[in-house]
Amino acid sequence: MSTTRRLRKIICSTLLLAFLLPAVSSMAMQQSKPIDAYFVPLHYMVNEKEFAPTDGEAGLIYNGTTYVPLRFVSYILNKSVGWDGATYKVTVGEPKQEELAAVEDYKQKSEVKHGRREKIDAAWLQPTPIDVYFEKMIYQFGDVVKEPAADQQGFIYDDKLFVSMRFIAESLGLTIAWDPETYTVSITTGQPHESEQPTSGQPAAPAGTNTEQTTNTSAPNTAPVTGGSGGGGGGGGGKSRPSYQSLKNDADAQLESLRNKYAAQFLDLAAKYFAAPTTEEQDRLKNEGRKLLAESDRQFEATLSSFESRLKDNGYDTSIVAQYRQQYADEKQTQIDNLKNSQ
């Protein structure tokens, strides 16, 4: 990834989320599709451990399929999530070193220590009308691109990408099972044997479910909350003097790590903003976002200063540091100007 593109990603992951929260929310005015969803007290098991979505991430049943936010199912399966808004591509893969802490923290907070699963009387379940945005997306698992079945297409709801839990699990080569009595989805990691491949067990649609599949390509132009994305590479060095390229690679990797860290924090802020019950709370979160942006600026400058010192200490030209700073400043000003003009 080029330095310019990396700097642009850092800015877009911070500035847009910090300043454009109201504008992102207003995109919900675009065309949506009403569906009947069942917000059932679902249970999610991975290798006999139960996990529960955090506030605002509850799963649902639509068209006989369990849908959950992409971040939830990916993180409890020890996977990272990436999003490319330009191509509408979702990437699910092994977390990089700088992403592991966020994944583990999420799992710890989501794990249910002493859960109880009781039989559910489906006759009492009632559908909830909601508006969603169906969008055809590209799903990449490692080096493999897969597409969900027509009746398992993902959709954007409450500014999050909801995906079929079965599609994600099976695309990762995992065994998934469904308990219709307790409404429990169970996933077993590791390669399933051919005889274990589930051929049935989809959540039964409660009475009254509309099973007509809808497709609508009119969706918000903003990235749904999915969480953080991919990282960069590291560098090596000689025994007595590191090479210029290795120092540059180290700096690039640190910049990428910063982007991952602050992108995740801003995504959490954005999710809280959309769920805020009052304008006062939204204003407070916007101020918090601006403070976080200032903090990311300081971290970015500290990384460049360290890079500059290492170049000087090893007798290398430091002009690239000025280029990094200028690219960051130019991109930041461009984003600010664009945001002002869009309001």
Describe the structure.
The chain has 343 residues and is an alpha+beta fold. The chain has eight helices and 15 strands. The chain has helices spanning 3-19, 21-26, 70-76, 97-110, 165-171, 244-275, 279-313, 319-342; strands at 33-37, 43-46, 49-51, 60-62, 65-69, 80-84, 89-93, 111-112, 128-134, 138-141, 144-146, 155-157, 160-164, 175-179, 184-188. The strands form three sheets. A six-stranded antiparallel beta sheet has the order 1-9-12-13-5-4. The chain has a five-stranded mixed beta sheet with strand order 8-3-2-15-14. The protein has a four-stranded mixed beta sheet with strand order 6-7-10-11. A hairpin with a 4-residue loop joins strand 6 (80-84) and strand 7 (89-93). It is elongated, with a radius of gyration of 22 Å. The two termini are 32 Å apart. The relative contact order is 0.18. The model is unreliable at 15-30, 192-201 and 207-239 (pLDDT under 50).
Provide a concise account of the structure shown:
By secondary structure, this protein is α+β, with helices and mostly antiparallel strands. Helices cover 41% and strands 19% of the residues. The strands form three sheets. Strands 1-9-12-13-5-4 form a six-stranded antiparallel beta sheet. A five-stranded mixed beta sheet has the order 8-3-2-15-14.
